[in-house]
Amino acid sequence: VTYSDEPPSPKTEEQDHNRLLVLNPKPFISPQQEYLYKVLVADIARLRGNNLLAAKYFLEVATMVQDSQLAERATQAAWNAKQYQMAMEAARLWVTLTPNNSKARQILGQILLHQQRPEEAVIHLNRWLNEFKDEPQKQGEIIEALLEQQQEPTKALEFMSQLVAKQPADPTRLFIYARLLLNDNQVDKAQEVLQSLLDIVPDHAQAVSLYIYSLDRQNQHEQALQWLKQLLSKHPKQWDWRLMYA
Protein backbone atom coordinates (compact mmCIF):
# COMPACT_ATOMS: atom_id res chain seq x y z
CA VAL A 1 0.00 0.00 0.00
CA THR A 2 1.58 3.26 -1.07
CA TYR A 3 -0.68 5.66 0.78
CA SER A 4 0.80 8.05 3.31
CA ASP A 5 1.25 6.61 6.78
CA GLU A 6 1.31 10.03 8.44
CA PRO A 7 -0.94 10.43 11.51
CA PRO A 8 -4.18 12.37 11.00
CA SER A 9 -4.45 16.07 11.81
CA PRO A 10 -5.08 16.91 15.47
CA LYS A 11 -8.32 18.65 14.41
CA THR A 12 -11.14 16.47 15.60
CA GLU A 13 -13.83 15.01 13.40
CA GLU A 14 -16.55 16.74 15.43
CA GLN A 15 -14.99 20.21 15.04
CA ASP A 16 -14.67 19.90 11.27
CA HIS A 17 -18.12 18.38 10.94
CA ASN A 18 -19.76 21.18 12.91
CA ARG A 19 -18.01 23.86 10.86
CA LEU A 20 -19.02 22.21 7.59
CA LEU A 21 -22.67 21.82 8.67
CA VAL A 22 -22.97 25.61 8.41
CA LEU A 23 -22.79 25.12 4.64
CA ASN A 24 -26.02 23.14 4.66
CA PRO A 25 -28.35 24.27 7.49
CA LYS A 26 -31.51 22.99 5.73
CA PRO A 27 -32.61 19.38 5.14
CA PHE A 28 -31.63 17.81 1.85
CA ILE A 29 -34.25 18.13 -0.87
CA SER A 30 -33.01 15.06 -2.77
CA PRO A 31 -30.65 12.09 -2.36
CA GLN A 32 -28.42 13.57 -5.06
CA GLN A 33 -28.02 16.78 -3.06
CA GLU A 34 -27.08 14.77 0.02
CA TYR A 35 -24.49 12.74 -1.91
CA LEU A 36 -22.94 15.86 -3.42
CA TYR A 37 -22.82 17.60 -0.06
CA LYS A 38 -21.16 14.67 1.67
CA VAL A 39 -18.57 14.25 -1.09
CA LEU A 40 -17.72 17.96 -0.82
CA VAL A 41 -17.43 17.65 2.96
CA ALA A 42 -15.17 14.61 2.53
CA ASP A 43 -12.93 16.45 0.07
CA ILE A 44 -12.62 19.48 2.35
CA ALA A 45 -11.95 17.24 5.34
CA ARG A 46 -9.24 15.39 3.41
CA LEU A 47 -7.57 18.69 2.46
CA ARG A 48 -7.67 19.76 6.13
CA GLY A 49 -5.99 16.50 7.16
CA ASN A 50 -9.10 14.99 8.71
CA ASN A 51 -8.86 11.64 6.95
CA LEU A 52 -11.25 9.95 9.36
CA LEU A 53 -14.19 12.19 8.45
CA ALA A 54 -13.22 12.00 4.78
CA ALA A 55 -13.14 8.21 4.87
CA LYS A 56 -16.53 7.96 6.60
CA TYR A 57 -18.31 10.19 4.09
CA PHE A 58 -16.53 8.79 1.02
CA LEU A 59 -17.42 5.26 2.12
CA GLU A 60 -21.00 6.16 2.99
CA VAL A 61 -21.66 7.71 -0.42
CA ALA A 62 -19.69 5.03 -2.29
CA THR A 63 -21.87 2.39 -0.65
CA MET A 64 -25.11 4.22 -1.44
CA VAL A 65 -24.33 4.97 -5.10
CA GLN A 66 -21.97 2.01 -5.73
CA ASP A 67 -19.19 4.21 -7.09
CA SER A 68 -15.73 2.64 -7.45
CA GLN A 69 -13.83 5.95 -7.52
CA LEU A 70 -15.35 7.01 -4.22
CA ALA A 71 -14.57 3.55 -2.80
CA GLU A 72 -10.92 4.06 -3.80
CA ARG A 73 -10.84 7.47 -2.13
CA ALA A 74 -12.45 6.02 0.99
CA THR A 75 -9.77 3.31 1.07
CA GLN A 76 -6.99 5.87 0.79
CA ALA A 77 -8.43 8.17 3.46
CA ALA A 78 -9.12 5.31 5.89
CA TRP A 79 -5.59 3.96 5.49
CA ASN A 80 -4.10 7.39 6.10
CA ALA A 81 -6.27 7.72 9.21
CA LYS A 82 -4.98 4.31 10.40
CA GLN A 83 -8.56 3.03 10.38
CA TYR A 84 -7.62 -0.34 8.95
CA GLN A 85 -10.98 -2.00 9.48
CA MET A 86 -12.68 0.78 7.53
CA ALA A 87 -9.95 0.64 4.88
CA MET A 88 -10.60 -3.07 4.50
CA GLU A 89 -14.35 -2.47 4.10
CA ALA A 90 -13.77 0.25 1.52
CA ALA A 91 -11.25 -1.82 -0.42
CA ARG A 92 -13.64 -4.79 -0.46
CA LEU A 93 -16.32 -2.54 -1.96
CA TRP A 94 -13.79 -1.25 -4.50
CA VAL A 95 -12.93 -4.80 -5.58
CA THR A 96 -16.61 -5.78 -5.72
CA LEU A 97 -17.36 -2.86 -8.03
CA THR A 98 -14.27 -3.39 -10.22
CA PRO A 99 -13.30 -7.08 -9.92
CA ASN A 100 -10.77 -6.84 -12.75
CA ASN A 101 -8.99 -3.82 -11.28
CA SER A 102 -5.51 -5.03 -10.39
CA LYS A 103 -4.76 -1.97 -8.23
CA ALA A 104 -7.86 -2.64 -6.12
CA ARG A 105 -6.85 -6.30 -5.73
CA GLN A 106 -3.31 -5.33 -4.80
CA ILE A 107 -4.33 -2.84 -2.13
CA LEU A 108 -7.04 -5.05 -0.61
CA GLY A 109 -4.55 -7.93 -0.50
CA GLN A 110 -1.94 -5.81 1.23
CA ILE A 111 -4.44 -4.46 3.76
CA LEU A 112 -5.58 -8.01 4.55
CA LEU A 113 -1.95 -9.06 4.93
CA HIS A 114 -1.36 -6.11 7.25
CA GLN A 115 -4.35 -7.26 9.29
CA GLN A 116 -2.97 -10.80 9.62
CA ARG A 117 -5.48 -12.38 7.22
CA PRO A 118 -3.13 -14.22 4.85
CA GLU A 119 -5.73 -16.72 3.59
CA GLU A 120 -7.95 -13.91 2.30
CA ALA A 121 -4.99 -11.82 1.15
CA VAL A 122 -3.66 -14.61 -1.06
CA ILE A 123 -6.90 -14.71 -3.07
CA HIS A 124 -6.48 -11.10 -4.19
CA LEU A 125 -2.68 -10.99 -4.36
CA ASN A 126 -2.65 -14.10 -6.53
CA ARG A 127 -4.97 -12.40 -9.05
CA TRP A 128 -2.63 -9.40 -9.06
CA LEU A 129 0.56 -11.46 -9.35
CA ASN A 130 -0.83 -13.39 -12.31
CA GLU A 131 -0.35 -10.24 -14.36
CA PHE A 132 3.41 -10.75 -13.99
CA LYS A 133 3.57 -14.46 -14.86
CA ASP A 134 5.64 -13.59 -17.95
CA GLU A 135 7.91 -11.28 -15.95
CA PRO A 136 9.57 -13.60 -13.40
CA GLN A 137 11.99 -10.98 -12.11
CA LYS A 138 9.20 -8.47 -11.48
CA GLN A 139 7.00 -11.10 -9.85
CA GLY A 140 9.90 -12.21 -7.66
CA GLU A 141 10.57 -8.65 -6.49
CA ILE A 142 6.90 -8.18 -5.58
CA ILE A 143 6.76 -11.45 -3.65
CA GLU A 144 9.96 -10.59 -1.78
CA ALA A 145 8.44 -7.22 -0.79
CA LEU A 146 5.27 -8.94 0.42
CA LEU A 147 7.29 -11.43 2.46
CA GLU A 148 9.11 -8.58 4.19
CA GLN A 149 5.76 -7.51 5.66
CA GLN A 150 5.58 -10.79 7.56
CA GLN A 151 7.33 -10.19 10.85
CA GLU A 152 7.83 -13.87 11.66
CA PRO A 153 9.58 -16.41 9.40
CA THR A 154 6.85 -19.00 10.05
CA LYS A 155 4.19 -16.58 8.80
CA ALA A 156 6.24 -15.79 5.71
CA LEU A 157 6.63 -19.51 5.02
CA GLU A 158 2.90 -20.16 5.44
CA PHE A 159 2.04 -17.23 3.18
CA MET A 160 4.45 -18.49 0.51
CA SER A 161 2.98 -21.97 0.80
CA GLN A 162 -0.46 -20.56 0.05
CA LEU A 163 0.84 -18.58 -2.92
CA VAL A 164 2.42 -21.73 -4.36
CA ALA A 165 -0.82 -23.66 -3.85
CA LYS A 166 -2.56 -21.13 -6.10
CA GLN A 167 0.02 -21.61 -8.89
CA PRO A 168 1.89 -24.87 -8.21
CA ALA A 169 3.69 -24.82 -11.58
CA ASP A 170 5.05 -21.28 -11.31
CA PRO A 171 8.89 -21.46 -11.25
CA THR A 172 9.35 -18.12 -9.49
CA ARG A 173 7.08 -19.06 -6.61
CA LEU A 174 8.56 -22.54 -6.31
CA PHE A 175 12.10 -21.18 -6.13
CA ILE A 176 11.30 -18.61 -3.43
CA TYR A 177 9.37 -21.23 -1.47
CA ALA A 178 12.28 -23.69 -1.64
CA ARG A 179 14.68 -21.04 -0.41
CA LEU A 180 12.44 -20.23 2.56
CA LEU A 181 12.18 -23.92 3.39
CA LEU A 182 15.96 -24.25 3.39
CA ASN A 183 16.26 -21.22 5.66
CA ASP A 184 13.84 -22.98 8.00
CA ASN A 185 15.95 -26.16 7.91
CA GLN A 186 13.22 -28.10 6.10
CA VAL A 187 15.75 -29.54 3.68
CA ASP A 188 13.81 -32.61 2.53
CA LYS A 189 10.74 -30.58 1.68
CA ALA A 190 12.89 -27.96 -0.05
CA GLN A 191 14.39 -30.68 -2.23
CA GLU A 192 10.92 -31.90 -3.18
CA VAL A 193 9.94 -28.40 -4.23
CA LEU A 194 13.17 -27.95 -6.20
CA GLN A 195 12.67 -31.27 -7.96
CA SER A 196 9.20 -30.12 -9.00
CA LEU A 197 10.69 -26.88 -10.27
CA LEU A 198 13.46 -28.67 -12.21
CA ASP A 199 10.90 -30.98 -13.79
CA ILE A 200 9.26 -27.85 -15.21
CA VAL A 201 12.47 -25.93 -16.04
CA PRO A 202 15.40 -28.41 -16.13
CA ASP A 203 17.99 -25.70 -16.78
CA HIS A 204 16.81 -23.25 -14.12
CA ALA A 205 20.25 -21.98 -13.07
CA GLN A 206 19.29 -20.75 -9.59
CA ALA A 207 17.31 -23.90 -8.81
CA VAL A 208 20.25 -26.12 -9.82
CA SER A 209 22.59 -24.22 -7.52
CA LEU A 210 20.10 -24.35 -4.66
CA TYR A 211 19.49 -28.05 -5.14
CA ILE A 212 23.25 -28.77 -5.01
CA TYR A 213 23.46 -26.63 -1.90
CA SER A 214 20.65 -28.66 -0.30
CA LEU A 215 22.47 -31.92 -1.03
CA ASP A 216 25.65 -30.45 0.43
CA ARG A 217 23.71 -29.47 3.58
CA GLN A 218 22.88 -33.15 4.05
CA ASN A 219 26.44 -34.31 3.29
CA GLN A 220 25.20 -36.09 0.15
CA HIS A 221 28.31 -35.20 -1.82
CA GLU A 222 28.40 -38.32 -3.98
CA GLN A 223 24.78 -37.86 -4.98
CA ALA A 224 25.46 -34.21 -5.78
CA LEU A 225 28.38 -35.17 -8.04
CA GLN A 226 26.39 -37.83 -9.88
CA TRP A 227 23.43 -35.54 -10.39
CA LEU A 228 25.60 -32.70 -11.67
CA LYS A 229 27.45 -35.06 -14.00
CA GLN A 230 24.18 -36.19 -15.57
CA LEU A 231 23.02 -32.61 -15.87
CA LEU A 232 26.24 -31.53 -17.58
CA SER A 233 25.90 -34.34 -20.12
CA LYS A 234 22.65 -32.67 -21.22
CA HIS A 235 23.89 -29.09 -20.89
CA PRO A 236 27.65 -29.20 -21.60
CA LYS A 237 27.99 -25.43 -22.11
CA GLN A 238 26.75 -24.49 -18.65
CA TRP A 239 30.14 -23.34 -17.38
CA ASP A 240 28.89 -22.24 -13.97
CA TRP A 241 27.64 -25.77 -13.29
CA ARG A 242 30.92 -27.22 -14.58
CA LEU A 243 32.82 -25.00 -12.16
CA MET A 244 30.52 -26.13 -9.37
CA TYR A 245 31.18 -29.75 -10.33
CA ALA A 246 34.95 -29.14 -10.31
> What is the residue-mean pLDDT, rounded to a whole number?
88
Which bin fits the share of residues in helices? over 70%
Q: What class would the helix/strand composition place it in? A: mainly alpha
How do the helices and strands follow one another from N- to C-terminus? HHHHHHHHHHHHHH
> What does the overall shape look like?
elongated
Strand content: under 5%
Residue windows where pLDDT falls under 50 for at least 5 positions: 5-10
How many whole angstroms does the radius of gyration measure? Answer: 25 Å
Give me the number of helical elements: 14
Largest sheet: none
- Strand runs, count: 0
Distance linking N and C termini: 47 Å
Model description:
The protein is mostly helical and 246 residues long. It contains 14 helices and no strands. The two termini are 47 Å apart.
SSE blueprint and pairings:
Elements (H helix, E strand, L loop, with lengths): L12 H9 L9 H17 L3 H15 L2 H13 L3 H14 L4 H13 L3 H12 L6 H13 L4 H14 L4 H13 L3 H14 L4 H13 L3 H14 L4 H7 L1
What's a concise summary of this model?
The chain is an all-alpha fold.
